[in-house]
Amino acid sequence: MKTEDLETYKKDGTKASKSQLKEFIKLYATIAKELKNENSIELNSVKTNIKETYPKEVYLTLIDEAERFVKFNVSQGSKEYVIPIFTDITEYSEGKQKISALFLDQLSCKVLSAGDIGKLADDDENFKGLVINPHSQNFMMDRNGGF
Fold first, then answer.
1. Largest CB tally within 10 Å, which of 44, 74, 103, 137?
2. Whole-prediction pTM
3. Closest among 15, 21, 17, 57 to 133, alpha carbons compared
C-alpha cells in the first residue's frame, strides 16, 4: 500500500488502500495458471511491473512480544527462513487472524519498506525472502526482490 494510505488509516481508520503489488500478483497468478508455465514470455511485463512496484509501497508484517519478526522456516530444522508480509490493511487483518493461531505469543504489526527488507537481507544470511499475503496469495520473493 502507499504510505499515504497507511497514514490515513492510522489517522481515521479508513481502509481505502489498494495495493498495486497485490493486483499485479493476482494478474501474474491468473496468467501463470492459464499458461501452466511461469517462465512464459507473456509474464515478462507482469514481472517487470511487480519489480517496479515493490520498492514504491510499504508492507505490514507481524512481530512477537519481543519485537522479533514472525518467521517461517524454509524447511524443518533449517535456520533459513522467510517472513510474511501483507500488502494492505485487509490482507493484514485476515492474515494475522490465521497466523496468530500458529503462535503462542501476542502478535502485533510492524511497517516495512523495501529498504527495511533489504537491510534485513544484508544483516541476516538466514533470511531468504518474503511470502506475500501467505493466507491468500502465497507469492514468494527472494531476499533481493527477485522471483
1. 137
2. 0.86
3. 21
Per-residue confidence in pLDDT tens, the chain, 147 aa: 787 777 777 777 666 667 889 999 999 999 988 988 777 888 999 999 999 999 999 999 999 888 999 999 999 999 999 999 999 988 998 999 888 888 777 899 999 999 999 999 999 999 999 999 999 988 999 877 777
Residues 6+ apart with CB under 8 A from 112: 58, 59, 60, 61, 85
Place of cell 517461517: 72
Q: List the grid coordinates of 119.
A: 537491510
Name every residue whose Cβ is closer than 8 Å to that of residue 136 and which is 6 or more positions away in sequence. 91, 94, 95
